[in-house]
Design goal:
Elements (H helix, E strand, L loop, with lengths): L7 E4 L2 E3 L7 H11 L4 E2 L1 H8 L12 E6 L10 E6 L2 H4 E2 L6 E2 L1 H10 L4 H13 L5 H9 L7 H12 L5 H11 L8 E5 L7 E6 L4 E5 L8 H18 L2 E5 L1 H6 L1 H14 L17
Parallel strand pairs: 4-5, 10-11
Antiparallel strand pairs: 1-2, 3-4, 6-7, 8-9, 9-10
Helix pairs in contact: 2-4, 4-5, 4-6, 5-7, 6-7, 8-11
Protein name: DUF559 domain-containing protein
Organism: Gordonia hydrophobica
Length: 283
């Protein structure tokens, strides 16, 4: 960026030294420099450190944060946030400066429109290895205010225990816990055949639950690997695999709990599935 040669304004007072379209990195720097002293925040701070979502394509408006005592004029393509915690939450020596990952993730979770979106945000950050559940929990507990605090902490504790996706979290809460199924083990190693991890396993009764979320089971090769692991489990360890999708886990959680309970009963579980509410359509 500069003022020599062919230039064009990116924002008032900020110019780029070419006339073509701005790259994503230039858009980020331009927003930070316009609002300076400022830093990338929310999804923009996450995006800049996540190789999974980095690209030169536009990713919507650039989010930046400035000190709460300032007022910065809004500009198209930019969202301004105000914070009293710039000193402890912003890394100023990065290029461009940004909010620390844990707080950026929590900022996005805090503005999420639903609990589903909260789970997706938190579990996605951990699955992408941007941070860990313990770091996020520490950041939550350092905040005086956090919308849905108890829910967020519960989700992070579940993610720490192995519920690595929205679907796994919903199975854990809506199917297993709500209906009194035995406690499962999550993300256990396959142990036989192809290497990998089981979404949910009831090792005492030799039953495996695999949860097919679209993000991880879209292509033919991934689907083939899933089926091969199911076959290996049955052939080499006499373990049955039930593969559940969104419909079974979310739309029909009560009926699914009844069916999983029956499968466990046939394999020796002595317990009984219970209704989660008077309206429960447990089968």
């Amino acid at each position: 960026m500069g003022t020599a040669g062919d230039t064009k304004p990116a924002f008032p007072g900020v110019y780029v030294s070419h006339t073509g379209a701005l790259t994503q990195r230039q858009r980020e720097w331009a927003a930070v420099l316009y609002a300076w002293p400022a830093a990338l925040s929310h999804g923009s701070a996450i995006r800049v450190v996540s190789s999974a979502v980095r690209s030169e394509r536009s990713a919507g408006p650039i989010h930046v944060v400035v000190d709460a005592h300032r007022r910065v004029t809004k500009q198209p393509g930019m969202v301004i946030h105000y914070s009293r915690h710039m000193d402890e939450r912003v890394v100023m020596h990065t290029h461009p400066p940004r909010v620390r990952v844990e707080h950026a993730v929590l900022d996005v979770a805090a503005t999420a429109s639903s609990e589903f979106a909260v789970v997706a945000c938190l579990s996605g950050a951990v699955q992408s290895r941007l941070t860990t559940p313990d770091r996020l929990l520490a950041a939550v507990r350092a905040r005086r205010r956090m919308p849905r605090r108890a829910f967020v902490e519960g989700v992070l504790e579940d993610v720490r225990d192995g519920a690595c996706s929205v679907l796994e979290h919903r199975y854990l809460h809506d199917v297993e816990r709500a209906h009194g199924l035995p406690r499962s083990v999550r993300q256990s190693k396959t142990g036989v055949g192809r290497r990998g991890f089981r979404d949910v396993e009831y090792p005492e009764w030799g039953l495996i639950i695999e949860l097919d979320g679209r993000a991880h089971h879209d292509d033919a090769l991934a689907r083939d690997a899933d089926l091969e692991r199911d076959l290996d489990a049955f052939a080499f360890a006499d373990k049955a695999s039930l593969r559940l999708g969104w419909g079974q886990t979310v739309d029909r959680a009560c009926r699914t709990a009844g069916k999983v309970g029956k499968a466990l009963n046939r394999r020796g579980w002595p317990g009984r599935v219970r209704k989660c509410s008077p309206e429960c359509d447990l089968e």
